[in-house]
Here is the input.
Amino acid sequence: MSIDLITRRDWKARAPKGAYTPISGTRGVKVHYTGGHVPADIAHSDNHHKCVALVRGFQNHHMDGNGWMDLAYSMIACPHRKVFEGRGPNRLTAANGAGLNSQHYSVLALVGSSGFTQPNDGVLHGVLDAIGYLRDRGRAGTEIKGHRDGFSTSCPGGPLYAWVKRGAPRPGGNAGPARPDKPAPATPPKPAKPGGGWPGRYLSYKPDAIMTGEDVAEWQRILKRNSYTVAVDGKFGKMTRAATVVLQRAEGEVPDGIVGPNTWQAGS
Here is the structure.
């Protein structure tokens, strides 16, 4: 799965005011839009800074204006096919409405009711990248719905909701994110080269399906070079996760035990 992820640290998110409510999975994802004005030129290649400003503004409004403990959304997709980490996977969203948040994660598309109102390909790819990420990392189910499904609202707006009702096809005619009940053909990750960059897939401990591969072995070698005691067996087990968490804490990363590009770079 490919995603251009902007972590909370990268977009300088404020710390939450309290503890998140953990969840083990959802039926799927609900798609949202901003419901207000989004600058008409936000999709220009030089204007990604406007996306960052919008996301920070939403967090400030939710925390200071609404009194919530954090930004409500699980993930946010922008017109440049970048995905912001909101509350993230395995945490209860606060965006879908009372009694509905445990059923679906929430993905906000930076599309408004004025200004930038027609989602471009970057937004649609970003929403699907976010959904794939939530399925991979947060056990999101196969449902893709609009916010208005089950809650009285115009969200996610006419154009986005019409896309959702068509089955949320990926622009260009390609399939959307792989569904657990119809998995995409497995493509083995390319072997990581010693000292090379992040191999392109998130590595994590999954007790029901241990991740294996040369990329796992290379991460274990990186841990050993950092003086952590792990076996270089190419299996991402409990000991590898524990060493990863310790390294993340030492390097100021989020200690979630998941090896993404930031953690890989911190260890290399």
In short: Confidence is low (pLDDT under 50) at residues 178-195.
